[in-house]
Fold these 4 entries.
Entry 1:
Amino acid sequence: MGLLYPRLSVMTLALSTKSDEGFNSSAMSISDSLGGALSLATTGIVFAAFTTPVQSFAGVFAFTAAIGVAAVLVAPRVTTRTP
């Protein structure tokens, strides 16, 4: 995680125009906070929904795997622009 955030910030600012840098930086900050909070809340709901600890942990791992698959599917959208 510590290796991802600086690179993501640099990439976002590198791909932004001068007039959009502030907006993109604040949007990235908000989405980072909101994404973490929503993931944590949803994980807690999934954990509490099952009755046994084995089912709870399996549900949480399945949810995090679904987040990972979604990230892999969306990742190709991020490309560099060639002039």
Entry 2:
Amino acid sequence: MQLTREQFELIAPLLPRQRGNVLLENLQVLNAIFCVAANGCKWRALPSHYGCWHTIYTRMSRWAKAGVLDAVFERLQRERLMRVRIEAVSLDSTIIKVHPDGTGALKKTLPKPSARAGAAGLPNFIWLPRVPATL
């Protein structure tokens, strides 16, 4: 999945204008994004000929938040330049926190006052002396 310069010229108006001292062209960034999408690799594993992975990721993140990537993908499909279909579902149980009640753990109960000697405070009853009935 690589865009040629001619294909890029058709979608170039959708991309933000580059200002300042920019090392990577938008075409190079788009091709890097397509490489990650096609191969499913991590950003850090992006081949070095695309440029610094962090720069590419930052620009992709900004474009995604601004809706630029959606417009680019839509134009690519409408012009039949590239078929873009990205489907991914990923669940990692190490980041999904489950409440202890959901795992079948025993619920914590308050200890009974008799379980801890002296912790209950003063007794709640009165001692009455017993008098034998035979006097």
Entry 3:
Amino acid sequence: MLNNLKKNYFLLISTFLILYFFFNLMSGERGLISYFEKKKIFVDLKNKESELIKKIELLSIQNSLLSDNLDLDYIETLIRERFMFGKKNEKIYIIKNHED
């Protein structure tokens, strides 16, 4: 048996090395599975970044409307939305969505 093991020593070592590299290729910190997980996280972060950029642009536009040159129509819209304020003899209807 020992004689047989010596003859197949190269085959045995190479098999273990191939298995070792295969498992490290698939799993591990830099493996194929980890690559796909990181790629998915990257795409999600890119989507969040684009959403945040859109929000920043919207807030920038709203901020510019409230700067030195006041836009009275925009301020009236804000007051109506936040304080449910209306003019005399004006009826305000509030529609609530009930999601069941």
Entry 4:
Amino acid sequence: MKKITTIGRVLFAIPFALFGINHFLMMDYYLGMLTSFIPLGAYTIILTGIMLIAASISIIIKKFVKFSTILLAVLLFMFIVTIHIPHLFIDADRTSSIIALLKDISLMGGSLIIAGIYSEDEEPKHG
């Protein structure tokens, strides 16, 4: 069972590293997604990229997992509220907005599950 949990944890973390890297490589794309009330423009995108990469590394190496996954859930919630929900009202193609919204809701749920199974001493609770 431990191998399955390890594989799941690593598979969960890898996309966040890639999303973080994309924040640097595709800055113009992410700037276009920002709504007008998100401050600092490109700095917000860079900070978000750093946070995503840091969370991914933390989850993979099992250091500060509970802390990282709770912060990741908060970050995903912020994406939902500040990006995905506003895009439901401004995008002509609501299908892609709904898919992105549901993706981040499910990732937020997964992040909270991982946070819930890790205690402060970083060993997962089984049971």
